[in-house]
C-alpha cells in the first residue's frame, strides 16, 4: 500500500479534471471497500505520526476522492468522511505545511456541532432520539433509588454533559416513594466539557429554577447548587467538603455520565481518588464502551472504525435523513471523531479519550470501589425503555455492568459502585 501511494502505481487509478475544474477520481468505486479504506486511513495515520507529509497528503487525496464518489449516502461513508476531516485537522496542527491538497480534502467549512446551542425542548428531542443517553439515565436512577431507600435526604453530585436531563425522571420516582420523598440536593459544576449537546445560554441559566419548579409540582423539595469550578480544578474541589456543602445524614451519590472520557487519562485516578475520599454511598459511571485512549494515532483510528459506525448506523435506522435532531447528532459524532483523531496524543483538555467498560471497572477496583450491580427490577425497566425504540437495540449484563448494544455490539456501559 505504501509503495502504491508513493509510486502512483497501477493499483491507483489516475485523476483527471472534471468539467467544473475539480479533481475527479476515475474508477474510485473499485476502491470503496472496508479493508481498502481502513488500510488508507491507517497508512495516513502512520505517515502523520512519522511526519511524512508527502505520503499523508497522497493518502488523504485518495480518501477524499473515495468519500466524494460515495456522496455520503451510507453510515460507513459518513464515518470515513469524519475520520478524514480529523486527519486533515491533525495534519494542519502537526505538519509545518500540510499543503493545499490536505486543505482541499477538508471540504467546505463546517460549523461546530450545536452552533450557539439548542433549546431545552430541542435537547429533550435530541436525547430521546435513541436510547444512547436514556439507557444510562434509567439504570443509574434505579441504582440511586435503591441507595436512597429510607434515607431522609439525598445529595447527588452530577458530573454529566446532558444538562440535568436525567433528573426529572428521578424526581418523579422519588415523589412516589412510600413514606414520602427525601429532601433532594443536586450539585453541578459550573464548567463542563465543551461538547455537544450544547444548550442555549438563556436555557442554561434557567436549568436550576425549572428543575426546582418541576420538583415542587411533584412534592419534592429540591436545592439546586452550582459549584463554581473550572474543569482542571474539579478533583481539588471534590476534595473540599465545604465547597460541596456536604451535610450530615444525607445519602451522597456521585453520578458520572459521559464525563470521564473528557478527563485526561493521567488525571482519572486522581479524580476517582477525590470521589472516594467523599465516602459516597454510591457512584454511578456511564460512558461509551470504546477503547480510544491509546497514544498511537493508528490505534485510535482502528478503534473509531470498530466503534463509531454504531451510532451512524443506528441513526440511519432510527431517524429520517431530513431529521434535524439526527443531523445534530451526526455533527456531534463527527466532532467527537475529530477530537479522537486530531487531539493531543497525551489526552489533553481538548481531547476525548474513551476507555471501555471492562478497563474502567478494573480502574474503579484499583481505586477502592466494589461493584454493586443493578438487579432485575432495573434491568426490566431498561428493557421497557428499549421497547420504545427501533429493533436492533439490546442490553447485556457482564458481571456488575450493564451494556447497551446495537445489533449485538457494545455501545454504552453503565456501572454502579460503592467504596470498599
From TrEMBL:
Q: What molecular functions are annotated in GO for this chain?
A: DNA-binding transcription factor activity; sequence-specific DNA binding
State any GO CC term.
nucleus
Q: Which GO terms describe its biological process?
A: regulation of DNA-templated transcription
Can you tell me which residues the record assigns to a coiled coil?
Answer: none
Chain residue ranges for the region called SAW: 342-418
Question: Where can the motif VHIID be found?
Answer: 154-158
What keywords are annotated for this sequence in UniProt?
Transcription, Transcription regulation
Task: Return the annotated region ranges for VHIID.
Answer: 123-188
Would you identify the family this protein belongs to, as annotated? Belongs to the GRAS family.
Q: Which PANTHER family match?
A: OSJNBA0084A10.13 PROTEIN-RELATED
This chain's protein is named Uncharacterized protein
Amino acid at each position: 500500500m505504501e509503495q502504491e501511494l508513493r509510486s502512483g502505481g497501477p493499483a491507483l487509478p489516475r485523476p483527471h479534471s472534471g468539467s467544473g475544474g475539480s479533481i475527479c477520481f476515475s474508477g474510485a468505486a473499485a476502491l470503496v471497500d472496508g479493508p481498502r479504506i481502513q488500510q488508507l486511513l491507517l497508512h495516513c495515520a502512520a505517515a502523520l505520526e512519522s511526519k511524512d507529509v508527502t505520503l499523508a497528503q497522497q493518502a488523504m487525496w485518495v480518501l477524499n476522492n473515495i468519500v466524494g464518489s460515495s456522496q455520503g449516502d451510507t453510515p460507513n461513508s459518513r464515518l470515513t468522511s469524519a475520520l478524514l476531516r480529523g486527519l486533515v485537522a491533525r495534519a494542519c496542527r502537526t505538519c509545518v505545511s500540510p499543503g493545499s491538497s490536505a486543505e482541499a480534502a477538508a471540504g467546505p467549512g463546517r460549523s461546530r456541532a450545536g452552533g450557539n446551542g439548542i433549546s431545552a425542548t430541542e435537547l429533550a428531542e435530541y436525547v430521546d432520539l435513541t436510547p444512547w443517553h436514556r439507557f444510562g439515565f434509567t439504570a443509574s436512577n434505579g441504582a440511586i433509588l435503591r441507595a436512597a431507600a429510607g434515607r431522609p435526604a439525598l445529595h447527588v453530585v452530577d458530573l454529566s454533559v446532558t444538562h440535568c436531563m436525567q433528573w426529572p425522571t428521578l424526581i418523579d420516582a422519588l415523589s412516589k416513594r412510600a413514606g414520602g420523598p427525601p429532601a433532594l440536593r443536586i450539585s453541578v459544576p459550573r464548567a463542563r466539557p465543551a461538547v455537544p449537546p450544547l444548550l442555549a445560554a438563556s436555557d442554561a441559566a434557567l436549568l436550576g429554577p425549572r428543575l426546582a419548579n418541576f420538583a415542587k409540582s411533584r412534592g419534592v423539595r429540591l436545592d439546586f447548587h452550582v459549584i463554581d469550578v473550572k474543569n482542571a480544578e474539579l478533583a481539588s474541589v471534590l476534595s473540599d467538603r465545604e465547597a460541596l456543602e456536604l451535610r450530615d445524614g444525607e445519602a451522597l451519590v456521585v453520578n458520572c455520565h459521559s464525563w470521564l472520557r473528557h478527563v485526561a487519562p493521567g488525571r482519572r485516578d486522581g479524580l476517582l481518588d477525590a470521589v472516594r475520599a467523599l465516602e459516597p454511598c454510591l457512584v454511578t459511571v456511564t460512558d461509551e464502551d470504546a477503547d480510544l485512549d491509546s497514544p498511537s494515532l493508528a490505534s485510535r483510528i482502528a478503534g473509531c472504525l470498530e466503534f463509531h459506525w454504531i451510532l451512524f448506523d443506528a441513526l440511519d435506522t432510527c431517524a429520517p435523513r431530513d431529521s434535524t435532531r439526527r443531523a445534530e447528532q451526526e455533527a456531534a459524532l463527527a466532532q467527537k471523531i475529530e477530537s479522537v483523531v486530531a487531539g493531543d496524543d497525551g489526552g489533553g483538555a481538548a481531547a476525548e479519550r474513551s476507555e471501555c467498560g471492562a478497563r474502567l471497572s478494573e480502574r474503579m477496583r484499583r481505586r477502592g470501589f466494589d461493584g454493586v450491580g443493578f438487579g432485575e427490577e432495573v434491568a426490566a425497566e431498561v428493557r421497557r425503555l428499549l421497547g420504545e425504540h427501533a429493533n436492533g437495540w439490546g442490553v447485556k449484563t457482564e458481571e456488575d455492568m450493564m451494556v447497551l448494544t446495537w445489533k449485538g455490539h457494545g455501545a454504552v456501559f453503565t456501572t454502579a459502585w460503592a467504596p470498599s
